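Quick one, probably user error.
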């Protein structure tokens, strides 16, 4: 039973979603992220691989059924038999991809796909239309190419574990085993700030909350919320969410209600209502 707008709504049957899965891709897949842009009839996802002799970042077109369009039996059967995804572009990545994000908007055009590497590098690739490619139908997705845009090369401080793009697409935040939370310009890669944590930083995420717009979870057992203004950073909350030090922790914030869910290898889940903090 669901309650919506103080009214009870009963659902007699469970909602069933269409599920498709690719065949074996021949590589271990570690990360996936939707690109903000979506061509007619196809969503675009970026993926990364790990623990392979040669790792890569790839773009895939995922066929999406148009909303409010009814299909006859033949069309529905054809749609069900179509491949789950079509490979659009591949770019070599020197190390395992442990984090992935896409930045678009503001001054970033075309969008960039940014990968956090196990060698400590942060690498960005431009996802641009391939003008030399023959035209393709809308459902197959656009002809794209991934071109290396910039890379910081890694500083020897351990693996980068997480990367996220600001809502306006102008800034990237990355973190990892070195205990640093780094802010970069998305377009050129220039570092805007480096913020020290008390332990390895497992996860970073932008969130549009009054409390702070940049959240990070650290192995010192804390969640830190920061307000970002240009290159200035002010910690507004340092909330214990772990059971002990040196625990791996990741967290995610709902864009709908501001609740945070954190998962830890201390075998607990933690939930924080950041609106009331």
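Nope, works fine. Designed sequence:
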């Amino acid at each position: 039973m669901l309650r919506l707008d103080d009214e009870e709504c009963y659902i007699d049957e469970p909602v069933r979603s269409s599920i498709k899965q690719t065949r074996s891709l021949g590589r271990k897949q570690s990360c996936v992220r939707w690109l903000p842009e979506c061509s007619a009839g196809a969503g675009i996802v970026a993926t990364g691989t790990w623990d392979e002799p040669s790792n890569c970042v790839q773009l895939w077109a995922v066929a999406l059924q148009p909303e409010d369009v009814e299909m006859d039996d033949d069309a529905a059967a054809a749609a069900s038999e179509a491949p789950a995804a079509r490979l659009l572009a591949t770019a070599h990545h020197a190390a395992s991809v442990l984090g992935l994000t896409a930045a678009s908007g503001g001054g970033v055009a075309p969008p960039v796909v940014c990968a956090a590497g196990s060698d400590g590098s942060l690498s960005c690739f431009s996802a641009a239309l391939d003008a030399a490619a023959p035209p393709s139908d809308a459902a197959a997705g656009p002809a794209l190419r991934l071109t290396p845009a910039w890379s910081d090369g890694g500083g020897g401080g351990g693996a980068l574990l997480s990367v996220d793009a600001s809502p306006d697409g102008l800034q990237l935040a990355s973190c990892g085993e070195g205990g640093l939370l780094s802010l970069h310009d998305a377009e050129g890669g220039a570092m805007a700030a480096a913020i020290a944590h008390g332990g390895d930083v497992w996860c970073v995420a932008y969130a549009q909350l009054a409390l702070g717009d940049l959240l990070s979870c650290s192995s010192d057992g804390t969640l830190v919320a920061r307000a970002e203004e240009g290159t200035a950073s002010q910690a507004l909350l340092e909330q214990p969410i772990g059971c002990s030090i040196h625990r791996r922790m990741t967290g995610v914030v709902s864009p709908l209600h501001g609740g945070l869910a954190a998962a830890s290898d201390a075998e607990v889940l933690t939930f924080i209502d950041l609106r009331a903090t």
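The CA atoms of residues 35 and 44 lie 6 Å apart.
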